[in-house]
Design goal:
The protein is about 60% helix and about 5% strand. By secondary structure, the protein is mostly helical. It is elongated.
Length: about 120
């Protein structure tokens, strides 16, 4: 499924997003209820204001539901998994190695302090 080019704007109204995505507005409102990661901001009058990241998320949800044939529950889980992957660091963290490194640095600093005190 080809994703259309998203115009360079700060905010989009629900009608604009619905037109870009090729779905009805009520479908977007349903997705907002069912999928945690789709939460557009609302202005003082309660009108939805989608940011570019929200529009991209709409296309991702549409891809999962329509092209990849996920259920809404399946798409929700897939989005959660993708979010976890995005928030995890790409480096491995060796806790024991870090503790040893920290202890070595402390020891070196104490040694430096002792040698300075002697002078």
């Amino acid at each position: 499924m080809k994703t259309p080019l998203i115009p360079d704007k700060l905010f989009f109204k629900i009608g604009e997003v619905a037109e870009l995505a090729g779905v009805e507005q009520h479908v977007l409102r349903y997705w907002e209820e069912e999928i945690e990661s789709l939460k557009p901001k609302k202005n003082k009058s309660g009108q939805r204001l989608y940011q570019k990241k929200d529009v991209e998320r709409v296309f991702e949800i549409k891809q999962l539901l329509y092209a990849d044939k996920f259920t809404v529950a399946g798409a929700r889980e897939k989005m959660k998994q993708n979010k976890k992957k995005e928030t995890q660091l790409d480096i491995a963290f060796d806790r024991e190695g870090f503790k040893k490194w920290k202890a070595d640095i402390k020891k070196d600093l104490k040694s430096i302090l002792n040698s300075l005190d002697k002078k």
